[in-house]
Specification:
The chain is α+β, with helices and mostly antiparallel strands. It has two domains: 69 residues, lambda repressor-like DNA-binding domains (434 Repressor (Amino-terminal Domain), Orthogonal Bundle); 134 residues, Umud Fragment, subunit A. It is built from seven helices and ten strands. The longest helix has 12 residues. The relative contact order is 0.12.
């Protein structure tokens, strides 16, 4: 019995990809992906998907042998913080990006040792996200539901702080993480919009208020449950 579909499903879960997002990235229909789950990955696709997820072809097909080409990847990273903080985005064989998790400690960004999200490198390149600008953080509020659920994993491009009308950004506000859609008004007034408009009113901050309250744009939120199709602007 070809049960490689179970391993493919597990790989998608590890990367935070839905079957429909994966289907769009591979230029196939969602039904194709569902068929792979049920009947196994087609032999013609094994090399392609093994390279994409950085796993052995044999493991993907049969479940036998090591999962990753590099044996080190089979072990969990050390729990202690490294002496030198890791580069925000590392690359494995040019196919998969390991985007590190960060958290706020006393109002400052700090890496979470041994925790990352695996994202397809090609998708990030298509969005114009540079390899040293991507981090992940947890959604800490419910103001963006149902678009972005509470505790969702956010992928943030620190290199894009320019406000594009209606786009979603992570912000630091008095040392706390916030996520809102943004727009700019006259004289540089910044407007914060929530997806849940019934429970969260629009907020506006003048440049003076932003400076006084430590309100700054951290970066553009380009991923939570699926990839955007293109970079704005």
């Amino acid at each position: 019995m070809n049960n490689s579909g179970d391993r493919l499903k597990a790989l998608l879960h590890e990367c935070g990809l839905t079957p429909s997002d994966f289907a769009a990235q591979r230029s196939v229909t969602p039904q194709h992906v569902n068929n792979w789950f049920k009947r196994g990955v087609p032999l013609a696709r094994l090399d392609e998907l093994a390279d994409l997820f950085c796993v052995h072809r044999r493991w993907l097909r049969t479940g036998e042998g090591p999962k990753h080409p590099n044996a080190i990847l089979r072990h969990c990273p050390p729990r202690s913080a490294p002496a030198n903080p890791p580069t925000p985005l590392s690359v494995h064989r040019g196919r998969v990006m390991l985007v590190p998790y960060y958290e706020l400690r006393n109002g400052l960004l700090a890496p979470v040792a041994g925790k990352h999200l695996r994202l397809p490198a090609k998708a990030l390149k298509g969005l114009g996200v540079r390899s040293d600008n991507a981090i992940c953080m947890a959604m800490t509020a419910s103001n963006m539901v149902p678009l972005i659920p509470l505790e969702a994993t956010l992928a943030i491009d620190l290199g894009m702080t320019r406000v594009v009308e209606g786009e979603t950004y992570a912000l630091l506000h008095n040392g706390m993480l916030r996520v809102n859609n943004l727009s700019l008004g006259q004289n540089g007034t910044l407007y914060l919009h929530s997806h849940d408009r019934r429970n969260y009113a629009v907020e506006r901050y003048t440049p003076t208020q932003r400076q006084a309250q430590g309100l700054e744009v951290l970066g553009w939120v380009f991923h939570w449950s699926h990839f955007r199709q293109q970079r704005p602007g």
